[in-house]
Amino acid sequence: MKRLLATSALGLLLSACQVVGPDYSLPDTAAVNRKDLQGPMAGEGDNVVSAPVPADWWKLYKDPRLDELVRQAMASNTDLRVAAANLQRARYQSQQAESAGGWSAGAKAEAQRLQESGEAFLLADKVPVDNIGSVGISTSYQFDLFGTLQRGIESAQANADAAQAAADIARITLVADVVRSYTRVCAANEELAIAHESLDLQGQSTRLTQRLRDAGRGDETQVTRSQTQYKSLRADMPRYEAARQAGLFRLSMLLAKPLDQLPAGTAHCAELPHIAQLLPVGDGAALLKRRPDVRQAERQLAAATARIGVATGALYPDIAIGASVGTVGLLDDLGTPATNRWGFGPMISWTVPTNGARAHPRSRGRHPGRPGSFRRGGAQRHPRNPDRPCAIHGHVAAPRCAGRSRRVRQGSGGADPSLLPGRSRIVSGRPAGHAHLHRCARATGGCQHPGCHEPD
Asked: What is the distance between the alpha carbons of residues 72 and 64, in angstroms, rounded to a whole number?
């Protein structure tokens, strides 16, 4: 009868178990579930199209040198190795959480020459020294009555998914930086070539102005202004060279290789790569599911929600049932009925939280809602060109005189022979028509391998 009551009580206890803590679920009002955000991207038909984004989006440039740069960066970049190590650690932690609880077993064997204390056994005499040994096997089963282990598994799996998303972020950022640096080198070389051509044309214009002055058809103001414009164009040359070197150094850092070991022809790319088709960006739902930063934030929220259940379950007792069998005694008598022992029964462990465990953690630093708690960032400025002031030194007042002379001639209907027909104006800006695919890929979460949309 007592066994029946004990069994019934244990059954009622197990049937009353529940999973503590809130259950995480994606809200129905989330952007990924809204029907008004499932359509094509705005502006389709101009430069983009709502088509699936290819896994190797950088190959849309059809540039073998760029493909080789991306391949080497993917193989040697340190940030990717760090992200892969973090992902492997998160997966091991998930496996460890899944193996917690349930059945566990252990075995123990020891032998020692021992001098026991007589008073420990309430004996006044000294206990003789002898050889003592013990052999034992134990097993136990831990019940997850309050769902603490289940919440731990949910948290570990969500952390693994967030680590996968972080690895995808590192991969997308790396490829986008490689493409951006390569196009920066190509753009700088192209602009430098245009600048040299413009400088040659301006030199010809200066010589022509001097001949007109010598022939009495011009004045010194025209010559001064033409020379000033020539020196200004020449002073811009180091800026394009600096942009080219900055792109090369960036590629060297991303590929973890010195400049002389970059793929052949990288430093001499003279034309920007172009895309011969519309840029595929997918639709709104695919964008939200593909962007790794959105997936990482969502998985981190799921992990934090599961940790609430883990912390709540720690307030309840841990209940397990176990059994053990073994033999303890003199080495010569091990295994005899006098040394054998066994036992089984329930085990309850309950750690009562103290005031220190219940105390709220003190916030460090400033309050997160205050503006001072955010790290201030500024826009990156282009480095000053130290050669430009030196190149135009001594001609500061000349443009003012030339500007006044130009207004006088334009008012009388005269033409300005020192102005170049639109060619020099190209140098001041980057060539038009270049699609910044690396920016679109970073913003839309461009994938670098077929399985990056879902965690492995």
From this structure: 12
Residue 398: predicted pLDDT: 42
Q: Please, which residues bridge with residue 40 across strands?
A: 283
By CB atoms closer than 10 A (0-12, 13-18, 19+), residue 212 is: middle
Radius of gyration (Cα) for the chain, nearest Å?
38
List, for residues 311-360, the tens digit of each pLDDT value. 998 888 888 999 999 999 998 889 899 999 999 999 888 887 776 555 44
Q: What tokens does 383 get? A: 């480095």
Query: What does the block give as tokens for 202?
Result: 């301006």
Helix runs in 117-264, H state only: 148-214, 220-235, 237-255
Q: What does the block give as tokens for 244?
A: 């080219």
> What is the C-alpha separation between 363 and 259, in angstroms, rounded?
47
pLDDT at 10 over 70: no
**pLDDT of residue 16 exceeding 70:** no
Query: How far, in Å, are 101, 130, 311 from residue 320 at the CA level?
Result: 9, 36, 19
Q: Which long-range contacts (CB under 8 A, 24 or more apart) does 404-410 make?
A: 405/219, 405/221, 405/222, 405/225, 406/225
Q: How far is CA 54 from CA 27, 51, 176, 254, 451, in A?
A: 29, 9, 14, 23, 12
308-345: burial string, b at 16+ Cβ within 10 Å, e else: ebbebbeeeebbeebebebbebeeeebeeeebeeeeee
Q: Supply the pLDDT for residue 273.
A: 85
The token pair at 230 is: 């020539």
Please choose, from the candidates 58, 62, 441, the residue with its C-alpha nearest in 3D space to the C-alpha of residue 271: 62
Using CA of residue 442, residue 380, residue 250, residue 437, what is the dihedral sign? Answer: positive
* pLDDT cut 90: percent of the chain above it: 34
Residue showing tokens 């566990």: 104
| CA within 13 Å, CB half, 346 | 11
On the question of pLDDT at 146 being above 60, the answer is yes
The amino acid that residue 292 corresponds to is P
Q: Cβ(174)–Cβ(233) under 8 Å?
A: no
Give the integer Cα–Cα distance in Å for 101 and 239.
Answer: 65
Give the pLDDT of residue 83.
92
d(C-alpha 400, C-alpha 321), whole Å: 95
Q: Which helix (H) or strand (E) holds 68?
A: helix 64-76
* Backbone dihedral angles phi then psi of residue 283, each to the nearest 5 degrees: -115, -175
pLDDT tens for 183-242 read 999 999 999 999 999 999 999 999 998 988 888 888 888 889 999 999 999 998 999 899
